[in-house]
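Record type: monomer structure entry
Structure origin: computed from sequence
Chain ID: A
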Amino acid sequence: MKLLAMKTKLFVIALLLLSLPLFSQTLGEITGQITDATGGIIPGAAITVTNLATNAVRTAVSTQAGDYAFPSLPPGAYSLRVERTGFKTAVSKDVQVQVQQTVRLDIALSIGQISESVEVSSQGTQLQAENATVGTVIENKRIVELPLNGRNYLQLVALSANVTTASPSAGQAGARQGGDRAGQSLSVAGQRTMFNHFTLDGVENTDPNFNTYVILPSIDALQEFKVQTGVYPAEFGRNATQINVLTKSGGNQYHGTAFEFLRNEKLDAKSYQFTTKPVVKNPFKWNQYGGTFSGPVVIPKLFNGHDKVFFMANYEAFRQRTSVNSIYTVPTAAMQGGDFSRIPNTIYDPATRVITNGVVTAAAFPNNMIPKSRFDPISQKFLQFYPAANLATAKIADNFQESEGRPINKDQFILRMDWNESPKSSWFGRYSWGDENQLSVGLGNAGSKILTNVEQYVGSNTRVLTPNIVTETRFGYTRFYNSIGRLFAFNRNVVKEIGIPGLPEGQPVQWGIPGVGLVNYSGIGDDSEGPYENKNHSLQFLNNTSIIRGKHTFRFGGEIRNDAYNQVGNQFARGQFTFDQQATQNPANKSGGDAFAGFLLGQIYQAEA
């Protein structure tokens, strides 16, 4: 009974392990069968696989069924060597392993001396018979050599079958996250654009709020990526589409690249227009530059020369400077000083209103001049954000023109390290950092600002416990910060400076200019939408283990994971104030008056806070 109970417990534990949700990974596998020229199986053959870039070595022995497998191999080019007493040594060179691919490579040995060597075809079976995954691998050559506007590798997802890029962007990401992430519109296999799942080197690279990517690596730092559209193995999941990306590792040779892509208005053609006026091109400057450097870390006393430690470092920057010309209707400098003599409407003093025989009357300001002593002190503080007219016009309309900037800045850095500790153990780690900001300047320093800062830490160890048991343990931490708010966010507390009674100054993320709307004039200040601030992270510990028994390969593992997606938005008010002409009209017949005159006097028509 005790033995039966123990077997039952072991069976239950095995079921639990096999049912744990495995996390997506980017490693590949080489498997096959060793036979002789007649097709008879050959057990006990020594098989060695070598990474051609790093000379990392793994060994295995064919089973009694003649089968072998090398699970958890980093994608790349390999050579395979098979040795067995009484047979010639077989060597297969340049075996290409891609992201999440199982390469089937059967080897037939010829009778002869083991010292003799025969090169066999390195072509693995083209039919993917080891699993039913449907997907497309985009390899390094296409990533680097195909033209990409903005060097965004996600444009190449469209090379996969059943992909469209004509869909709208994902959900509310545009208004509540902003930036290039919110503009992605990849619909795969008829699914919604927010049903894509991104991984980078086998760890989470998807923001949990809107399912947008977190790190967008430079194309020079990528080895390859795979777009999976269905029938995933157990370790994949979480969404309808998987986009699994792998960064490059260093090798035994030093390699470096440097680049800059330049565009500006001087290289652009003039736009066509149906007038005889000279065509003026809007300013435009685009600079995208950076470089990659990779190779071995050679410290003889510490790492015993080559074949041990490798690095890959990448930096890329993006700078875009554009502007747009905007026309507004603003008060003149004289009007900002209280002189309304130029306008046809008479300005009445609301402080002189009286009721006579049931009729409300008021006296006009002499010469349509409002004394500065009557200016409301809070309105005076607002005037710093209200530019005076700079165009001579017949009426108070379309009298202010300015060029408004739309700068975009992006920086990113990736450092990857690989260590071949021994034929039984290999390590890799990566650190990625990115920083982005986008500004949209409006009238009187109003406008919006998108701030994004991301970090990702990855560490992994692949260990061969026995020739038939391989385990991979991985750690990942991803931090994502994003805010879409006003131009003065984090920099200037305007609400505190102005001192509107009863209006709290708020947190730095919400800082901005209270909104002021004036009838017949362009308003100043920021709108009341937002801000939205995202503070998200993902922490993972996971394991994938492969066990080979005869003709069967068992895979199991587990994941400990913590996701946090903390967003605040629209909880903070900066105030919204509206002014019209009613306060300075003739109350008897509703004539005259001006909204800006009411603003100077502090006569609010409507207030929101």
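Annotation 1: The radius of gyration is 34 Å.
Annotation 2: Confidence is low (pLDDT under 50) at residues 1-24.
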